[in-house]
Amino acid sequence: MDPIDPNIDPLLAQECNLIGTGIAVDLTAAGKTGVVMNALYDFWGPGRHYQAYHGGLRILTESASARLASPITVRPDEIETSQPGFLPRQRSWNYLQPWLGGQWRLRDIVDDQLIAMESVLYQAATRREDLLRNFYRIGLRATERSSPWAFVIPARQRDPAAAAKLIETLQFGQVEVDRATQPFQAGGQKYDAGSYVIRMQQPYSSYAKTLLERQSYPGDPRHPPYDVTAHTLPLLLGVDAVAIDAPADVPLEPAGAVVAPRPPALSIPARIGVYQSFVPSDDEGWTRWVLEQFGVPYRSVTNPDLIAGDLRRRFDVLVFPDQRAATISAGYREGEMPDQYTGGLAEHGAQALRRFLAHGGRLVFLNRSTDYALRSLGVNLKPVPPADYGSPGSLLNVVLDASSPLTQGLPAQIAIWSEDSPAWDVPKGSPARVAARYPQSGILASGWLMGERSLAGKAALVDYPIGPGRVILFGLRPQYRGQSWQAFQLLFNALRLAAADSAKHE
Hints:
By secondary structure, the chain is of the alpha+beta class.
């Protein structure tokens, strides 16, 4: 459903409507009820729609779940009263035969998905020539793109490895990349030889354009976006990229394959533990993945490990990935999982963490897990009420405190990944030290943001001392899906700080 990324060809979007409607027809013809289309999911973002930028259709079919393979019975009053794009108890143009409860089985899910798959195959076979012809038309229109004419990645970059990573990503998506053989001037700026030029007159320019430009998600504050709204790689990687509107006389040659150098192993001699809840967290996996890419050793720490105490003897710093405070505290309820996987840290775990701080330990909390520090560890900060703003996956500008050890090696202002991330009001006299703060205006860098005024001047990264220990609160996801390359440095600095502090206490 809306919004549709303007970089997706209208013809392709219409074909998706065609195929999706065909699936709905075939499900209805088979006697299935509860069939809804054009709802729930927007058509925005290459993370879910890679093929849409390469002339290919992407159809999502999804069924309500059972209890694994066990049937469930749903009462009419248990059916949710509202979903984006339709009301599940009311008949509408895109939901013509509501399902109002009853037994739901794995067999129903399999039947629905088989019908949907066969519908797609049937339509592809009967309209084969149309689909092939339209694939050609979509590519042809991309080669005729004139605005912008190109993007330039200047040769001089703060982080050349990040620039190579960006080019490698574009080439992976079959984007043709050229390199300037001589210095040139375009758009009123001068560029050195060796600068990369990505011309938009090529079949997969839509992919390059959507990754290189800043997004402006046309969301309605009454209906927040379904998923992330920004995917601007130059901001995530910390790379300069410039759109060139008018054609320029640039001597070019094919860049050839660009492979980003493997990150060197970081020297961080801290003993690092990464909290691993029994309730799965994708952010926990991404945290481990990023540490492994940079050769940073760590140990996973589960609830029993942490509750056992004596943490300071084993660790200098513990990292808590993005997870709700209630989940960290309570975990799975009894009966939801085998007994050894139920429960959370509870009070015994909180006590162990307080003793860890009392002996000079360092705790790093990412995104939503910061709320646990406020609730259970005595961090006295006032969060901005979540209802006052919304950023369900956006890039927001922050100003860094150059004197903070957490910001070393970074420019004065960067864009951070905010996924409804917390922010705090830090009054004068607070022991907290603010390492990153939202500016008074111009907070949105790319994507969608509601309630900018509520974030103006508020803290996004805080260093909070508790006795000899320290709690570092990230109001962001610094390692978001392995993409927020520039913000990795904030996390690495937090780990380095723990190592330095540990050496002092020893």
